Amino acid sequence: MRGLQTVDRILYRNTTMEKDKDLKEKERELKQAKTKPPPIQTFIETYHADLRADLQTYMQGDSALRRQLERKLYRDFLSAAERGNPQTLQIYLDTGIDVNFQDPKTGQTALHVSSASRAREAVRVLLASGKCDYLIRDRRGRLASELAYLYGEDPALARLLGNKERKQAERYGMKLTRKP
After folding, report:
1. Does the global pTM surpass 0.85?
2. How far is CA 135 from CA 22, 43, 48, in A?
3. Which fold has domain 39-172?
4. pLDDT at residue 177 in the model
């Protein structure tokens, strides 16, 4: 009987020690996980660093490389506006990209695209730049406020943009109409 009790104690002690080791390993892993940034955050930081490097290359590049990069950067700029990515838009604006760039195919600016896709955060960043021309029309003759109402289904944003369009038209001494 005593031999069995001793074996039981030894087995119990071994399993307890193994559990303790497992717990300590899990605690160590949790501590390491807390110190590492989450993978998506690392990806975003890397993406923004690459974007800044591309923009620096664009600003210092020769004319052929500059034209090639310019097309890519403006496409990416409009894409960021459509996705509603305010951090990326701010990086572009900080480097001096033209906020009123019009897509060659559609004639839409970043304001048109972000308004139509209901990307309010992106619109806020664009408005905060203070460089938006609210009176630019796309190829179909639509203003950003019209796209916000029709496609973004956001009457509040459409009203805000409509007010800014009217004020800018008054400043330029123009009569604002819905269809040219």
Report:
1. no
2. 65, 37, 31
3. 1.25.40
4. 78
